[in-house]
């Protein structure tokens, strides 16, 4: 799924925006344009995610604490990456607000915090194992 996600991102980023308003022959576009097709795909994915959650709930195969942690982390990361889509390099290097951090600094801050947390986690585990 990650490879497919990257392929879709690449295809969408290469798509000229003026194509979104042009007709799509795909049945899921419902006789409308490419915008309708792609937003329908998003809605469709949300529907099936609900189906999976419902199936797992009914089967009593809910995620373990670690699985839930991973899912929530991935959701937060995707949301952050999504918030950066469309920024040019120039915009990425501008302040988010006057006197504030640049978008680049915010991204670096999140990555640095993550690395620090992982390093701390590994150190804590090592200390407990050597005790």
Protein architecture, described:
- The protein is mainly alpha-helical.
- The protein has 2 domains: 62 residues, no CATH class; 68 residues, no CATH class.
- Helix content is 69%, strand content 0%.
- The chain is flat and about 65 Å long.
- The relative contact order is 0.04.
Determine the strand fraction and express it as a percent band: under 5%
Structural class: mainly alpha
Q: What series of H and E elements makes up the topology?
A: HHHHH
Structurally, how many domains make up the residues? 2
- The first-to-last residue Cα distance is 41 Å
Number of continuous helical runs: 5
Shape: flat
Mean pLDDT: 94
Largest sheet: none
Helix content: 55-70%
Q: How many E strands?
A: 0
> Segments where pLDDT lies below 50 for 5+ residues?
none
Q: Topology, please?
A:
Layout: H1 2-14, H2 34-58, H3 65-84, H4 89-92, H5 103-130
Highlighted features:
mainly alpha, 131 residues, single chain, 2 domains, 0% strand, flat
Short note summarizing the structure:
The chain has helices spanning 2-14, 34-58, 65-84, 89-92, 103-130.
């Amino acid at each position: 799924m990650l490879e497919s996600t990257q392929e879709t991102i690449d295809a969408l980023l290469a798509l000229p925006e003026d194509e979104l308003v042009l007709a799509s022959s795909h049945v899921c576009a419902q006789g409308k344009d490419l915008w309708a097709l792609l937003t329908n795909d998003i809605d469709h994915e949300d529907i099936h995610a609900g189906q999976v959650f419902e199936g797992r709930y009914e089967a009593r195969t809910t995620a373990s604490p670690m699985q839930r942690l991973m899912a929530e982390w991935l959701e937060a990361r995707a949301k952050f990456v999504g918030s950066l889509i469309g920024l040019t390099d120039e915009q990425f290097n501008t302040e988010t607000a006057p006197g504030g951090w640049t978008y680049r600094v915010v991204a670096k801050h999140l990555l640095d915090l993550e690395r620090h947390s992982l390093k701390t986690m590994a150190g804590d585990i090592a200390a407990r194992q050597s005790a």
